[in-house]
Specification:
CATH topology: TIM Barrel
Bound molecules: zinc ion
Number of domains: 1
CATH class: Alpha Beta
Oligomer: single chain
Strand order of the largest sheet: 1-2-3-4-5-6-7-8
Amino acid sequence: MHPSAKHPEKYRKNKNKTPVASWLDYDFFTEERKAIKSLTVILRTVGCQWRKCTMCGYWHESADVTQADILTQLEHSLRNSPDERFILKIFTSGSFLDEREISSETRKEIAAMVKKGKIKKLIVETRPEFINAKKIEDLKVVEHLELAIGLETANDFIRSKYINKGFSFGDYKTAAKIVNECEATVKTYLLLKPPFISEKKAIEDVIKSAALVSSYSSIISLNLCNVQKYTTLENLWRKKYYRPPWLWSAVEALKEIKKRDENVAVMSDPVGAGHIRGPHNCGKCDPEITEAIKKFNITQNLSVLERREEMDCECKEVWHVLLKFDDFLFGSNLANQIHNSYNDYSANSRR
Ligand SMILES: [Zn+2]
């Protein structure tokens, strides 16, 4: 019997006092253009209040936590802080600056905790509508403060119709200007391959979006769309109306964005790479390509993605064909059929 079944009340309370996850890693520190240690903490809060994005199921990690629980969770995670100065990323699977999730008192207490640690840079995530100068000032307790915004795309049509994000590119720009005026930096998340658009259009959209956000952002991070549970996207995927992006597409987008603007730091955390619900190629080359992307993230060195022999596989030709016929197919279902028959083929060959 699971302990939660025996003592449901106790289990719920313990769960509320521990973060969803926390881990150590390396991150590219843009200010010094090198990789340093980072601690990522995903706090459990009441969760995102918007909850309407087609691809997002993160709010299922939410719980009925108190503000005291949130502080306990962070204390718990900070015990794993590295010895040297590091980047601290505090995420909530929602908006750190939404006071329904993190109250202004809690925000200030978190700032005091952060101030005591050996933290070079603090990164928090938020929707743009919650950003104002006062809240940013509260968090300016470290040398570098960064606000991460999930814009997903600079294209208002794609963002509103296909993602249902509920804010405009204009809202993002207004918020980003406030952040920059407060001498903090912006990290912009772009979504590679929202539902309803073809592989090729998805690549073009992130490249175009990157050009439009680079003047506001110190980092552009490509989120490779993955199929989360209990989402609209999951429904589409089950009906075979959606295939997550190819890793080749991620590589292509990263290379192109970097080539067009060498000064921009562009990266992509390949969450769920190689899995059927995550970004994937044929199954054979996925680990190698994922490694290359991770290496590129912390080096920003284009040659990592351009190594001919390592960055090749027979499935690359299938991906090329897919892009080649896009103009004839207008992203129609036939393209999905090609994807899916190839998927079935590669899934079977993996077994
Ligand atoms: Zn392959």
